[in-house]
TrEMBL record:
Name of this protein: Hormogonium polysaccharide biosynthesis acetyltransferase HpsU
Family the entry assigns: Belongs to the transferase hexapeptide repeat family.
Any one GO molecular function term: O-acyltransferase activity
UniProt superkingdom: Bacteria
């Protein structure tokens, strides 16, 4: 190891703790933020989610869907929601028919999250509608909605940033970092997530069965 490399490693091991912070978290204020429900409803939801979801069987989705609807979520027919999925504010969430929400998925719904029909959000993916203004010394809260079109598959362990729109029938590869809008019917992956090629699906016509006499 050269002297210069040793000095660089020493600097990385010993971060500068003397430079002043450019943000002052004492000034942080989110009183303007509209959660959409009174505080007691939010606390009740978090309590119910923490108790009801883990107690329901893995493949029995109806109780979880019923609770989400009771708290204001719009959920279509035939939806699958695993017991370890987490929803911050369900009244800001829409999920279309026959979509799947996998294990340990987080829908951080400070803003609206709209998921279309026949979508798959795979395990450990994180849809995040909240962030902070890094140019604001008070580190102000920012939010933007997320929209996921029909037929989308977000594979395992993906991050989807605030304000992102994912076009219909697009596939997002595992562990991708989705920071901007993706076109429809495309296959995308990477950090940051980028278009790779167009998705093609064979048009299969099932034979019509004769009625049983």
């Amino acid at each position: 190891m050269t002297i210069s490399n040793f000095q660089l490693d020493s600097q990385l091991d010993s971060p500068d703790l003397t430079s002043p912070a450019l943000v002052d978290l004492r000034r942080y204020n989110q009183s303007h933020f509209d959660r959409g429900r009174p505080g007691w409803v939010i606390l009740l939801w978090w309590l119910v989610q923490a108790i009801v979801f883990p107690l329901t069987p893995h493949s029995v989705h109806a109780p979880r869907i019923a609770v989400l609807r009771w708290f204001g979520a719009t959920i279509g027919h035939g939806v699958i929601i695993r017991p370890t999925a987490r929803f911050t504010y369900p009244w800001k969430i829409t999920i279309g028919d026959y979509s799947w929400i996998g294990d340990d998925v987080v829908l951080y719904s400070l803003d609206r999250i709209a998921i279309g029909a026949h979508c798959v959000i795979s395990q450990r993916s994180y849809l995040c509608t909240g962030s902070h203004n890094i140019d604001d010394p008070a580190f102000g809260l920012t939010t933007a909605p997320i929209q996921v079109g029909n037929g989308v598959w977000i594979a395992t362990d993906c991050f989807v940033a605030p304000g992102v729109k994912i076009g219909a029938n697009t596939v997002v590869g595992a562990r991708s970092n989705v920071l901007k809008t993706l076109p429809e019917q495309s296959v995308c992956w990477g950090n940051p997530c980028q278009f790779q090629y167009r998705r093609t699906i064979a048009d299969v016509t099932l034979p019509v069965r004769d009625p049983i006499n």
